[in-house]
Amino acid sequence: MIQETITSHIMALVKEHTGIEDALSPETNLEDDLAIDSLERVELAIKMEKAFGVALANSKLRHTLTIGDLIQLVIHAEQDKRVINV
Fold this sequence. Notes:
Elements: H1 3-18, H2 38-52, H3 58-61, H4 67-85
């Protein structure tokens, strides 16, 4: 999946999860800008795992601060999935 597709899909998932209609960017801070706490971050990660068919490590999820971090997390999980399936 290309990065633009992943980005737009994650932005849509975040908007759906938070109910926020404002414009988001990769620099949008999950906690400061969107009030997403650690529990909500896990809930959002579960939605992303289902949407992209990947597994996201909790240890890496804890270090995500921005939407850009979530995007990179999914991109790396996609790449890892391709390596395993080859």
